[in-house]
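Please decode residue identities from the backbone states below.
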């Protein structure tokens, strides 16, 4: 038998707690509605989406797809925001491709586009992971995350009251050699463009330290570190950044696999930083995904699949629930997002 065909079935007898509705209303602060990540909800009847969110207990939804470009931003503003303005927030983005042709004027131009996006209805800024990995300046040089030339963008976000949802790095194993020691070997094999082995890419900690510098430098701008601040494998490091940067928050979208394999540490972390964590799934509107997150947060279930598919998607391990206290749950489900996203 080939190792890739090995699918052991656990004989451990554990309980399964179904959580169809969360204990409190939910604000999904990190998700997608369009192709490819959102399942194409911009091509389906809106009432189907609203019914699904109602059934899941989700009262507000942040769509980050506007970060891919203004054409998508305006389309989603017209399709979702205009028809259900209380339900949706759509984030805008930066067109890094313009840097090559604009040269030294790029940052001021991009800052101006944020104003235009706000006038059109955008309520935040989404920065995707090509920033720090692929984005190059007009000289063809890779741009560092804390490049001071980009200060006008982050300062404008602060002036506009735009929270900056930022994703600058992927799981640490994506930066390691793709060999028999890599815990994400199967995942990278299925998605080879997710491999950022250093070299030629920057080292993981070079990106993260630059991110730390960026957030600390712009204290008047709210930053949200996507996916447990892009470093779910090291909660001590994430906690240090939260402590040093009062303008910094995180979500935990798409990271049940990381948090659930360190349940004691994760539970302590969520309780300690209960005022700085936002709920998000990054799974598009999907009932089973929402209920899996609710189970993880609310129950003490042991050793269960953190993926809605047949097999775990990020590594060959299972996870354990955190059974968070109700006061903590309420903050993470909705209260923190209300403050950061200015939801009345």
């Amino acid at each position: 038998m080939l190792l890739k065909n090995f699918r052991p079935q656990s004989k451990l007898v554990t309980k399964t707690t179904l959580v169809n509705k969360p204990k409190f209303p939910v604000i999904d602060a990190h998700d997608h509605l369009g192709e490819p990540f959102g399942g194409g909800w911009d091509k389906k009847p809106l009432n189907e989406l609203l019914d699904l969110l109602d059934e899941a207990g989700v009262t507000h939804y942040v769509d980050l797809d506007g970060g891919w470009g203004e054409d998508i931003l305006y389309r989603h503003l017209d399709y979702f925001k205009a028809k259900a303005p209380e339900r949706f927030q759509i984030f805008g983005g930066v067109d890094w491709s313009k840097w090559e042709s604009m040269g030294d004027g790029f940052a001021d131009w991009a800052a101006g586009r944020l104003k235009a996006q706000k006038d059109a209805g955008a309520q935040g800024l989404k920065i995707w992971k090509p920033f720090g990995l692929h984005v190059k300046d007009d000289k063809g040089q890779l741009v560092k995350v804390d490049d001071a030339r980009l200060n006008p963008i982050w300062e404008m976000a602060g002036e506009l009251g735009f929270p900056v949802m930022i994703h600058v790095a992927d799981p640490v194993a994506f930066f390691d050699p793709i060999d028999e020691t890599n815990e994400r070997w199967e995942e990278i094999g299925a998605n080879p463009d997710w491999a950022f082995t250093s070299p030629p890419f920057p080292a993981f900690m070079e990106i993260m330290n630059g991110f730390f510098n960026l957030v600390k430098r712009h204290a008047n701008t709210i930053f949200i570190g996507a996916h447990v601040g892009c470093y779910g494998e090291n909660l001590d490091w994430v906690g240090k950044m939260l402590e040093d940067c009062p303008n910094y928050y995180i979500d935990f979208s798409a990271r049940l696999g990381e948090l659930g394999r360190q349940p004691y540490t994760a539970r302590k972390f969520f309780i300690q930083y209960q005022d700085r964590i936002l709920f998000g799934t990054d799974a598009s509107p999907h009932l089973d995904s929402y209920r899996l997150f609710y189970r993880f947060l609310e129950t003490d279930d042991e050793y269960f699949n953190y993926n809605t598919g047949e097999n775990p998607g990020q590594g060959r391990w299972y996870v354990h629930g955190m059974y968070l206290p109700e006061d903590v749950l309420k903050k993470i489900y909705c209260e923190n997002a209300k403050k950061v996203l200015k939801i009345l």
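Observation: The chain has one domain: 23-341.
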